[in-house]
Write a structure and sequence with these properties.
91 residues, mainly alpha, two-stranded antiparallel ribbon, 4 helices, 2 strands, 44% helix
């Protein structure tokens, strides 16, 4: 299911969606966040990593093979997650 322009907090917390009267299947359980630019995505991911304890994987798809994207400051877990996501993208 694809829903555009949901408030960020609604994507992560079902309780917030319920309080605001928003009823959809994505509220609180989003798997993918699409952003309008690399800069926006980078800021969002860094915020999630440093303030929420998230693990992020970076992969570019659409070419002949997926391309793994990591940051110099990524932990080993994030690097492994990026490689795993690229392997999954091969199928």
């Amino acid at each position: 299911m694809f829903l555009a322009l949901l408030h960020l907090i609604i994507l992560f917390q079902k309780k917030s969606a319920a309080i605001k009267g928003i009823k959809n299947n994505v509220a609180g359980v989003a798997d993918v966040l699409l952003v309008p630019s690399v800069e926006t995505g980078n800021g969002l991911v860094k915020m999630m990593i440093y303030f929420m304890g998230a693990c992020a994987a970076g992969v570019v798809v659409g070419g002949k093979v997926p391309v793994v994207i990591t940051s110099r400051s990524d932990e080993a877990q994030a690097r492994l997650a990026s490689i795993a996501a690229a392997v999954v993208a091969l199928d």
